[in-house]
From TrEMBL:
It catalyses: CMP + ATP = CDP + ADP; dCMP + ATP = dCDP + ADP. It holds the Pfam family Cytidylate_kin. GO terms for molecular function: ATP binding; CMP kinase activity; dCMP kinase activity. ATP binds at G11, P12, A13, G14, A15, G16, K17, S18, T19. Its main location: cytoplasm. Belongs to the cytidylate kinase family. Type 1 subfamily. Coiled coil: none annotated. Its EC number is 2.7.4.25. Residues 173-189 have a biased composition (Basic and acidic residues). It comes from Alicyclobacillus ferrooxydans. The lineage of its organism: Bacteria, Bacillati, Bacillota, Bacilli, Bacillales. Residues 7-222 form the Cytidylate kinase domain. It is an enzyme of class 2 (transferase). This is Cytidylate kinase. It comes from the Bacteria.
Length: 226
């Protein structure tokens, strides 16, 4: 198999991209890159420094003034986000960050910055990268492209279960509404919208286990290596 294989996993919120991409990366010894965490990092900075999601100049200035570090965890093969020496990765999924991440992801200059970091990360290593525009914009030359979906109800149920495991009760209908709104915004923006690449494998994970989805992707990787 090619040494620097690249696998793109795109899809709507809660489709299982991070879970499955991380597992595939682990199986193949590749770096897992969660590009959503990068957009969430900009949102985290915006919340912390009081910059509005509509203020493109302000957001770009934040990235200039407060360089964040995406550090590779050698044992896990994942990236952790460090701000001024502190690991902020667990804070990236907070509700205030989630509320503004999609609105600020529409800005071309924010996307340019992050896309360039994402492309640099794959220079010397094989990757599994997940997001919204990986197969279409970030790695249009990826060896295997997967567009992972699931019904909105199932995606909302999965997220509600995640919250419940962490001891938080969040109404499934509330999660469903905010997911639907985010998907709509991500799919309808002018730049790098959420959509499958022409050559992507479409994989509907509704009713499928994580293992089944991982096995299917590994099959596609094997096929492409033949
Ligand atoms: O985990 P979840 O699917 O809920 O979201 P995420 O992957 O962490 O991404 C959060 C948001 O970042 C998305 O709703 C998009 O607005 C944005 N994003 C993007 O625009 N492009 C990417 N490649 C990744 C994320
Ligand atoms: O990254 P994305 O927002 O697409 O999804 P995620 O953060 O990986 O969350 C998906 C949730 O659904 C996790 O709790 C998984 O355990 C669960 N799940 C899955 O990922 N794939 C399945 N086929 C079934 C459940």
């Amino acid at each position: 198999m090619e040494e620097h294989i690249s696998i793109a996993v795109d899809g709507p919120a809660g489709a299982g991209k991070s879970t499955v991409a991380r597992a595939v990366a682990k199986r193949l010894g590749l770096l897992y890159v969660d590009t959503g965490a990068m957009y969430r990092t900009v949102a985290w900075l915006a919340v912390r420094f009081g910059v509005k999601a509509t203020d493109e100049n302000g957001l770009v200035r934040l990235l200039d003034e407060y360089p964040v570090e995406f550090r590779r965890d050698a044992t896990e093969g994942t990236l952790a986000v460090f701000f001024q020496g502190r690991d902020i990765t667990p804070e990236l999924r907070s509700p205030d960050v989630s509320a503004i991440v999609s609105p600020l992801s529409v800005h071309p200059r924010v996307r340019e910055r992050l896309t360039s970091i994402q492309r640099d990360l794959r220079k010397n290593t094989g990757v599994v990268m997940d997001g919204r525009d990986i197969g279409t914009v970030v790695m249009p030359d990826a060896d295997v492209k997967v567009f992972l979906t699931a019904s909105l109800n199932e995606r909302a149920r999965r997220r509600a279960e995640e919250f419940a495991l962490k001891g938080h009760t969040v109404e499934e209908s509330e999660i469903r509404d905010s997911m639907a709104e985010r998907d709509e915004r991500d799919s309808s923006r002018d730049i790098a919208p959420l959509r499958p690449a022409m050559d992507a494998h479409i994989l509907d994970s509704t009713g499928k286990s994580i293992d089944e989805v991982v096995a299917q992707i590994l099959n596609w990787v094997r096929e492409c290596a033949k």
